[in-house]
Amino acid sequence: MPSANLSGRVVLDVTGDDAEKFLQNLITTDLDGLDKGDLKPGALLSPQGKILFEFLVARTPDGLLLDTLETSVSDLTKRLTLYKLRAKVQIIVQPESVIQVSWGNKSGASENDSSVRDRRFPDALNVRRHYGTEAAPTADETQWMALRIAHGVAEAPFDYALGDAFPHDVNLDQISGVSFKKGCFIGQEVVSRMQHRGTARRRILIASGNANLPETGTAITADGRDIGTLGSVVGNAGLALVRIDRVKDAVDAGTPILSGETTLTLAIPPEHRFTFPVTTHEA
Known about the structure:
Blueprint: E1 3-5, E2 9-15, H1 19-24, E3 38-45, E4 51-60, E5 63-69, H2 73-84, E6 90-94, E7 99-102, E8 116-118, E9 128-131, H3 141-150, H4 188-197, E10 202-209, E11 219-222, E12 225-234, E13 237-243, H5 244-253, E14 257-259, E15 262-267
Parallel strand pairs: 3-8
Antiparallel strand pairs: 1-7, 2-5, 2-6, 3-4, 4-5, 7-9, 8-9, 10-13, 10-15, 11-12, 11-14, 12-13, 14-15
């Protein structure tokens, strides 16, 4: 069962009598559907529906934890504190967080295992997050990134920039990262409108190259026209944030899709439900 220590991540504890109600009214994840032992993705949006902060959320004995980017945890803490008002909530960063991820066909957690299952991945993969563990890792972050790529699981800052993407762009709607039934959260009106009108045009796709892919951030083009950007890369595989209407146009026309000099094949992640558009719409 491979395991890897993750760098650049930190745990933010949200505790207190009002912790769940407080977060439920702010973030995209439906906490009513968050079972003990599960870890689900989520985001705190701008009023315009863009992702300001991304995280994974799980229950703890005292409340909830947010597994988030170390580079943005200070700003996230300030933003949550701004919304707190008189709610009975404590927001505390665990600056020395040790976060390890494991995956493989080992059956679920043992009685003494406090890990949580990462619900962004199929159950059969048994992807688990471990907090505060000191077990020696048996894999590295490159292998973890390869697993994310294979299943189309995007993460900032590798695959998109905070403040520049809607939840649909990074497939949060496909992996229980945004709820359209729980009621209001910040940015909910914009995101719900995109869902009901089917207007999401950018998506994370899996990119396969005819050679090793260029570095993260390289433009993806078709017939000299930018259609997206390359994200996480391991060898000849990667993730790509692209305009799916323009990808469809290129495929239908037989136009090569390139990143640098490398020819790409772009595919919808295997467990995701969206499709390429039937017709195209210009910006």
